Amino acid sequence: MSDGTEDGNGDQPQDTMRGRVDESSWKLWLLMDAHRWVVAAGVLAVVFLSLTAFSVMDLSPVRMIQQEHNAQFWLFSPMFGAIVTGVTIVVTIGQLVLSQELGALGDQRQRMQGSIDFRRDIESWLDVGVSPPDPGSFLAAVLDGCQTYANRFEEAVEDCEDDQLRRQTEEYVDSLTDHAQSVGGRLSGAQFGEFDVMFAALDFNYSWKIYEANRLRENHADALTEEADDALDDLIEVLKFFGPAREHFKTLYFQWELMNLSREILYASIPALIITFGMLQYVDPTTFTGVTLGIDDYTWVMNAATTAGIVPFVVLLSYILRIATVAKRTFAIGPFILRDTARSDDITWEE
Predict the structure, then answer these.
(1) Which of 25, 135, 207, 318 sits at 20 to 30 Å (Cα–Cα) from 226?
(2) Which domain, by its residues, includes 250?
(3) Is the pTM of this model over 0.70?
(4) CA distance 72 to 105
């Protein structure tokens, strides 16, 4: 338990998300951590280089296909329609997201009251006058509270006579506090709107911490004093606050990202429409007669225009990759764990 790595029974998952997932570090960076425009630029570069490689192989010369089948028209005419249709769909998605923020006065008051009640509950448990207003610092405060209650539980267990209980409690508390300090430090300096808040919050394995606390109670129920049992109850209650708080901020983050996506696709669609329309109306293949780097200049123009035409789709792809990955990592809230690292048939219920 102490280091957050797998124990001898093979049922202890890694604390960090990078350790819990099967994907390699570069894949996780690509799906989640990398800036979305960097991912989009990488995909566009791969497309352009692939088209250029096909041109070098000269499998189907672009100029010949243009002369025999009017490829320029049949490529860019559907692309122009696809861009217009895609932008319409994305704008509709943005309107749906925005509609969730609209409502009657009573609904808005109910939403606000629910948020205030949740903050007051946490403030009463954390014994603070006012909890931080920004999401990163708020989650960091919850993690500080988890550390405080974990230390109180460890102090209460010191009066118990069971040596194994004291040893396992010390390992559990050390693992929890070290992990909470690490994640809390990243959350404190993170700005909502960037992915840093969600990425750090995803690292805190609160579901497993709750499970470990319940397993401690189950295995040592007879050895726990009333004070220690109450302290363990308090620790579990504070840990349970992290799940709803993270889910709330995840919902806000998804709305934020979808609105950013709508705006950026609108930005990307304007040059894409101009280029595709220009290729349809104003570009004459016969005006390109030269060769650059051994490739027909008309081929360079076609490859570049094709790559520019798919920019809105690639931007959409880059954002959906991150949103889908975050959603997959947070399907379950509370004590349920969906990862392969914690299958029920691998968990040892008896010591």
Answers:
(1) 207
(2) 17-102+133-346
(3) yes
(4) 54
